[in-house]
Design brief:
Length: 196
């Protein structure tokens, strides 16, 4: 079993403008850096420790992981998990969230090049079970993206969670336990002082 703390990266300018960024590699803005610091300080207050820190390959996640790792005095390299990259929104990248999300939230939505719900869940869950093989018995912190976290939530309890109806703020942290045959949702902590 592994204890997995999944973090949504800090805010970018596209987050602030409410634009879909998907695989667009945007850095954190000043507020996003502050959110990462607030998250790290809260983890320290809560006496949380991690055996390894991991990240999506996109810079907004890596930068969040780096800021947190420095605050936690973590000395090892951050482990990159390629399969925790954000959903490929394809033709929707750069669109306003208000225009794009009604399509994404439509059950069974498909479009050539767009990574549908089934594909992203399969990718994320396979990567998560692979972490169990690599880090069994450990506690991990991983910085990733909204739809990566939602994939884990939907897989853990499809009756309770959906891509359409569950909100995540930049800097939120969701705790899971990962076993050989199941992933269990434990807790969602939103550090409201980090949000706009």
């Amino acid at each position: 079993m592994i204890k997995l703390a999944m973090v949504r990266h800090g805010q970018t300018n596209d987050n602030f403008k409410r634009l879909v960024q998907g695989r667009i590699d945007n850095p954190l803005n000043a507020h996003g850096k502050k959110q990462a610091l607030i998250l790290a300080k809260n983890l320290i207050k809560e006496n949380k420790t991690f055996d390894a820190i991991l990240s999506s390959p996109l810079s907004r996640a890596l930068e969040t992981a780096y800021i947190v790792s420095k605050q936690l005095n973590y000395q090892e390299p951050i482990e990159i998990v390629q399969h925790f990259v954000e959903r490929n929104f394809f033709h929707l990248d750069g669109m306003s969230v208000d225009d794009a999300m009604p399509l994404v939230r439509t059950k069974g939505y498909k479009y050539p090049g767009f990574e549908d719900d089934e594909k992203i869940i399969k990718r994320v869950i396979n990567a998560t079970y692979n972490l169990l093989k690599l880090h069994d018995g450990k506690s991990l912190l991983c910085v990733a993206h909204s739809h990566v976290l939602k994939s884990l939530l939907v897989y853990s309890d499809p009756k309770k969670f959906s891509f359409a109806d569950y909100s995540l703020t930049n800097g939120d942290i969701i705790y899971f336990e990962v076993y050989e045959d199941k992933i269990i949702f434990k807790e969602h902590i939103s550090h409201s002082e980090g949000a706009l």
